[in-house]
Each structure stands twice: as C-alpha cells, then as structure tokens.
Amino acid sequence: MRYRILILNQLSARGLERLPPDLYEIGSDLTDPHGVLVRSADLHKLALPSSVLAVARAGAGTNNIPVAALSARGIPVFNTPGANANAVKELVLAGMLVAARNLCQAWDFARHLEGDDAAIDRAVEAGKKQFVGFELPGKTLGVIGLGAVGVEVANSALALGMRVLGYDPQLTVQRAWQLSSAVEQARSLDDLFARADMLSVHVPLADTTRQLVNAARLKLMRPGGVVLNFARAQIISEPDIVAALDAGQLRAYVCDFPSRLLKDHARVITLPHLGASTGEAEENCAVMAAEGLRDFLEHGNIRNSVNFPESQLPRMPGTMRIAIANSNVPNMVGQISTCLAAAGINIADLLNKSRGEYAYTLIDTDGEVSPGLIGQLQHIEGVLSARIVRTSL
Which of 242, 270, 298 corresponds to the end of one domain? Predict the structure, then answer.
C-alpha cells in the first residue's frame, strides 16, 4: 500500500518527482490522505481527516494553515525556508533601484510622450529633471530580520557599496555563519530606523511584528527614506506609510501587496505578490516540501517544521521505528519506556526533542511492535500521536 498525498495547489513537476509512484499516490481529490502538499490554499476552511500525518507548504509563510489546531493533533507542519530566498532578494534589490532612480515614474512619463521625435526630445530634456535620483553606494540599508532572505539582501547590499545595519534578536547560528561580518548590528529597532536611509523588512507575521513599521518609528528615519516590504502586508501600517509619504518624511514605499489605499499613490510602487514568482523558486519550494514530507512519512524525521522540533535519527538495521508527538511535560519518555518494557520491547536507539509546549520522540526497537502497543502509547496522557514508521504502508 502506498502513501496518499493530497495536492491542493499546482506544484512544480520537479518537486512531485521526489515522491516515487511505487510508494506514493498523488492527487487533488484523494480521500483519507496521509500527507498534504499546499501552496496558497486556505486550510482553515478545510476539515483535514484523521488519516493526515503531516502538512507541507511549498513556501515560507504558514498563515494559510491552522498550525495551532494541527499541533494539538500531533501533526507537524513543514515549510521551505530559504527555497525562494534568491528570488525575493532579487526583487528587493530591484525595488531599491526602482525607488532610488524613480524608474517607474520616469517610465510612465516616457510612455506618455507625444509628438514627433523632435518634440519628444524637447520634452525629455525639459522633464527629466523631475526624476533625479540617488546612487546606492554610501547609503545605509537597515534590514529587519536576518533569516534566509534577510541575510541574502544584507550581503548583496554590501556588494553594491552600501552600509548595512541588521537587527534580529533571534538570529540563528546557521544564518550568522552566512552573514557577512561587515553587516553592523543595530542596538534596537529604534536605533536601526534612526540610522537607515532605506529599510527592508524580512520577518514573519506574528503578534509581535504586526504594524512593526508605524508612525512613531517612521519619524525616526532620515528625511527622504525608502521602505521596502516583501514580507507580509500587515507588518507595516499602511495609513502611517501614506502619511509619512504625504508629509515628505519618506521618499518612496515599495511593496508586494497592492491595496486600495496604496495602489494609486504617486510615491508607492506596488507589485502583485511577485516575491517567489520565478520558475526556479517554485521548483525549489516544491522539491524541498516534497522531500521533507517524504523523510517524515518514511523515516519519521522532522526538518523545517514550524511547530515541532528538528529531529533526525539515523535508522538502525533490523529495527522497527516508532514516532511519537506529545505535549512537553515531565516523565513522558519514562512512561513511554515503561510501556515498551512491559511489552518486552528493547529500545535500540532513542531521540527526544522539545520545542515550546510540544515534544517529539523517535524510538528504534529490537522487537516487533504491534498495533496494540501503538494503541497503548496513544492512550498515555499527553501523547498526541503515535505510529509505526514504515517506508511504505
């Protein structure tokens, strides 16, 4: 029997090829799926059956997925951090250049020129002064959020001759290794705003980041500043942005999220959510999502989950594997071990990791594990899910 994977959006064929047909049945109308692959479909409106073991999103954000509800069921949610980082970085750099040189306004001016070539030449010479811009070298870019995208933006801005300030109190060791040592650390958000000529945000949407860019912080920026947002619309207060533009505090706002308030403003450049819209990024995301889902279903390993801890345990030959998701409470491993010992099952290897209020345990056993034993594990208070991990069902 093969694993059934429900596909809720069109995904790159290169990604789906990572799920071999001898082990996986893939479709958009499958019943009782074991895994779900999604891009933008809203899972908040979809009742996922009890058969679902994991959900993987081909993208970084998971706002379209009921993560809390799935966590309570012991279902990991995977995403693909970094898979579209280069695509977003290139768009940010394009936004910086467009804003610095008034390219959109200048292009609009040129395409509406009328008359013969002589008349056009005269109009060009008379009108080009209104589009005088500035060059990037020597300007200071503030980067909020130094994850996969933020690090690439910061390093690329340095290569363009800019001074770069970074702020991320949750900077990981992995990203720190990737970040150029020339990126300066801002002491606080207010410090970053006060010293930046241009500002780019690269943080997920959460209660702590909603309207992170607001009137109070915009007033700290140097006059003529530029704000770029290719993360999430709600990270920035749109009314406060418009007010800062109208007051001349800001030169431009460039974002990936059109709205009625923003789309017609002369100093706003809105794009139709193009951040990850490259063939390469879509392939990278689909491949990463499919591979993460497959590793979990076949081996129980967790990589790039937004709700459960990173957990990878090499498989020992001749053993059976049990995967358990549970609440992060005391003596959980002890209760699991006692249950296995009572059944005469020896533990050959064990991995237990925790993350916030949830934990995850992988156990390789020397003896056969029966469905009845799995049922006993599932009845331990605090256990959210338990299963025997097989390459195929």
Answer: 270
Tell me how many degrees the CA angle 27-28-33 measures, rounded to the nearest 5. 70
Q: Residue 276: its pLDDT value, please?
A: 87
DSSP-based three-state secondary structure for 21: coil
Alpha-carbon distances, residue 325 vs 132, 163, 225 (angstroms): 59, 45, 48
- Burial label, 9 (beta-carbon count in 10 A; 0-12, 13-18, 19+): middle
- pLDDT score, position 301: 98
Q: Which helix (H) or strand (E) segment is 93 a member of?
A: helix 85-100
Kindly give the interhelix angle for 85-100 and 279-299, rounded to the nearest 10 degrees.
Answer: 150
List, for residues 74-95, the tens digit of each pLDDT value.
Answer: 999 999 999 999 999 999 999 9
Inter-residue contact 55 to 77 (CB < 8 Å)? yes
CATH number at residue 377: 3.30.70.260
Q: Are residues 108 and 15 in the same domain?
A: no
pLDDT 10s digits, 301-339: 999 999 999 999 999 889 999 999 999 999 999 999 999
- Its domain, for residue 22, covers 1-82+279-307
Q: For tokens 């933006």, what's the residue? A: 153
Structure tokens at 40: 């933008």
pLDDT digits (tens, 9 = 90+) for 251-273: 999 999 999 999 999 999 999 99
CATH of the domain at 15: 3.40.50.720
User: How many domains are there within the chain?
Assistant: 3
* Positions in the chain short of pLDDT 50: none
State the angle between helix axes of 371-378 and 332-342 in degrees (0 to 180), rounded to the nearest 10.
Answer: 150
Claim to verify: residue 28 and residue 135 sit in the same structural domain: no
